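Progress report, Aim 2. The chain analyzed during this reporting quarter is listed below.
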Amino acid sequence: MRKNVKQQLALRVLSTAALVAMVSSIATAAFADTYDLNKGSVDILAEGGEQRITQWADKDKGTFVQDGNGKNIDHRPDDDITLTTKNKDTGKTETAHNTVTIDAKEGDTANVTLEDVFINREGAWRSDSEAALTVKGDGNTSIELNGNNTLSSTGAHAGLEKTDAECSGTLTITDDKNDDGSEKEEKDKYGYSTGGDTGTLAVIGGGSGGAGIGGQGGSYADSRAQEIHDASNITITGGNINAGHTPEGCDYNCHYSTGAGIGGGSHGGDGTNITITGNANVDAYGSYYAAGIGGSDYITDHREDKSYLAGGNGENITISGNAKVTARGWDAAGIGGAEYGAGKNIQIKDHADVHAYSGGNGAGIGGGRGCGGEVSISGSATVFAQGDNGGSGIGSGSEIRNKEVAPERRDTTVTISDNATVTAIGSYHSAGIGNGSDHRNVGKTDITITGGTVNAISGSYSASAIGGGKDYEDGSPAQNVTVTINGTTGNTTINASCTEDMESAISKGNDTADIIGYDADGVSPFGEDHSVVVRMYKKGSLTLKDYDQNTHRYKSIDYNHGELYQTVHNRKYMDENLDTTKLEDEDLHDWKLVGEVVQPTLEKEGYADYICSIDKCGQTKHVVLPKLTPEPSEPDVPGDNTPNTPNKPDTPKQPEGTTPAPVTPDAPAQDGTAPADTLAADTTADAAVVPADAAVAPAAAQNVVQDAKPEAAATAAVSAAALPQTGANWLAVVGTALSGMFLLAAGFVLDRKNRRMN
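Predicted structure tokens for the chain:
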């Protein structure tokens, strides 16, 4: 009996628990709905592990939009919110003036989908200005893109506003779903979604300094904290993004805004911790004094006893994966610092494809006017960067000498490695990679290239392609420039072109960079980890084409390397390219014989040593000449006592596609050394042995006179090679013949004597 009571009690407890669970699930049931922004503005809150939405019919009056069941959308739970302005009856995307605010608290994530949303705040009726979409909170916000979306703000607001003053969390823009809401199944090697439908987003900031995506603008007299201008922790992993004041639908006046495409708002707003990766396709346009991606505009930085010009920095900017990015600055870097702002820790890697253009005084990638940049390009990334108005292609902006800029903003570091492909074009007085114009003896510049293919073209007026720029007033070069080139991370090919007749296309500013030539032992300063070849040109040319009145930029550029004046390389490069059919004309060697040819005999091999006489080359090769092997003699014909002469051995065949080596050098010195105008030969035991398909020189006689003419030496060499040395003694042959004749005569005399006796 007692056992049955206990069983019934247990069943009642379980039933009660199940009922409570059912009620709780009903009470917390979340919607997955689509909300029409034409009906009212939306507030989204992620807190305590759940997400809720409120849609206002009139926020001032405290009234709410009702759903299809007549219920208010007030703090409504919904973990999968979709926003739209598309009319479900007509199928057309309408223009709304309402706003979206997303607030994710620390430890929570807000998930929102934009599906054919068009918000234009220019026509807003509200007296108080608001951004089209604002992200707040210390948590994380994820925005998925479906269809075509546009966010346009007015006043000082960003199109998609995320300021450090309002949000310390992260904003991630994704394109992981198709337009029907289904997950994209295809993934790239980095784990990001690819294929399927591509969502788009156009983002335009207000005319008073708002960024496209990022910080808020304002006036110089604005008393609000600087953090409203700064923006950080922005990640884009997919979709087609067009951020900033783009040429489309923008007249000239809208360019007077001073916000970055992605990053800081005016004034002096920093753009930090910006990542573009996956399969994102991003176009970013900076307004006046602002970078395409990075910092915005400038302010005066007042310190203890001095004031400095301080523009927005572009810092910790990473472009990776399969991302494609085009960025244009305006009196600032394309990617990096604003006017008087630095570009710090800019990384481009993996298979990213980047095109960056400055719009005046800034580098294509790096620092703005008066400031340096810190740029790293690696992996298999492809980069095209162009400076303007004294800015370098990659490196610093113009006027590093400006003492009104804080010293910590003046240094420049550029690193290119692995299998990256980089084209960098400077502007007048500036390097393609390195310094902008007017650098002088302020700050320092370090350039390191350890792999990849680099095309560097200087601007006009005698700047180097890689290294230092020039001062446009007195022509003095930049100082404190270091250039390092080797093959430690991958095969390295450099084409450095000057637009003038320069002493060196690669320089340390004040003098030629110490990267050229081999030492006395034939060792290259490039190292031998991978192949390295450097070609230097002069009198190159640049042609700017298709000027755009709206953007005040040229749409394209053509360049010509000009005249090749020097080629340098390491041994590794030549070892990998000894098949001369694969070499360009300028890469072929001019081989000169070192000393005498050691002829082969029947018992020993011979050899010949060569050195390339091209200036600063020093490459050597050791050619082995095989032993002589006479052919068997024919049997003697009776009555013919003339000994048979062995046939002449075949001359070693010249390999197809190779350049015959000269038989003899210019007349060597009497002491047996190479001519004075050649570098010392590498005749040590580790001298390179030419493979079997390399050019083989015919043997020369040992007794070639030292001061003989080359033609006579060649004749003697061929003759000597055609007469094998048998080692026969002709005196012994004659003696043997006479002895035989004497014995025959003695035998005849004895035979006649015997016959008489008988």
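Residues 186 and 195 are 6 Å apart (CA to CA). The longest helix spans residues 730-757. These observations will guide the mutagenesis work planned for the next reporting period.
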